[in-house]
Amino acid sequence: MVLDDFVGDATAQRLLEYAIANEAVFLPSKVALGYEGHVDETHRVSKVNPDIESVMPLIEPMIRKAVADAIPRLGLVNVDSYFLEPEIAWSGDGAFFKMHADTLRDRANPRVLTMVLYFHKEPKAFEGGQLRLYGLGAQPGSSDYQEIEPRWDRAVIFPSWFPHEVLPVRCRSTSFEDGRFALNCWVHRISGNAT
Ligand SMILES: O=C(O)CCC(=O)C(=O)O
Ligand SMILES: [Fe+2]
Questions:
Q1: Calculated CA dihedral for residues 23, 13, 94, 86, nearest 10 degrees
Q2: Could you say which EC number(s) this protein's record lists (predicted)?
Q3: Ligand 1 neighbourhood includes 47 CB (under 6 angstroms)
Q4: What is the model's pTM?
Q5: Coil, helix or strand at residue 60
């Protein structure tokens, strides 16, 4: 599901300003390996800031509404209760994220939905960085995909088990504010509520 004009210009601008002001808090992104996260620059290059509590109240109502709509539309079951895991990711020149799924299997409260909201400085100073969303079971190199442009204030919501990747970002400068920003928010199903 692609939802344009998701939070509105003023709120998207607030998110951008918040991210830029907190550049120092962004740390290299990790990928999951068993129960541990580790940095693997052959698989993923970007930076993340999971400490976004102060801006969550601005966007949480829109996220919760979109999640409530997405659950029946995407045919998810057993998601009567859930919690959100938000972070802001920054992708500068050369950043990418190879094909992966977001589901962390064998965990008590698995991720069931992935939401990504894009924002960036205007005029846009990067190219690339499209999200490729593959069909279930696709292998690297598959041509079974939909490609989504990371447009200002566009949100994408999909089941976390679908394979996806972020194509390489090319940016005119190395300055932080020129990069591709994405607010990622995972919906974790709270286990034990099977009906
Ligand atoms: O930034 C995106 O478009 C997707 C990011 C992603 O796949 C992830 O953080 O797991
Ligand atoms: Fe992902």
A1: 70
A2: 1.14.11.-
A3: no
A4: 0.94
A5: helix
Residues with CB under 5 A from ligand 2 (ion): 102
Q: Which ligand is nearest to the CA of 45?
A: 1
pLDDT per residue, tens digit, the chain (195 aa), is 999 999 999 999 999 999 999 999 999 988 887 667 788 888 889 999 988 999 999 999 999 999 999 999 999 988 889 999 999 999 999 999 999 999 876 678 889 999 999 999 999 999 999 999 999 999 999 999 999 999 999 999 999 999 999 999 999 899 999 999 999 999 999 976 444
Answer yes or no: is the C-beta of 93 below 6 A from any ligand 1 atom.
no
d(CA 86, CA 56): 8
Q: From 2.60.120.620, 3.40.50.300, 2.40.10.10, 1.20.1420.30, which CATH number describes the 2-189 domain?
A: 2.60.120.620
- The helix/strand/coil state of 145 is strand
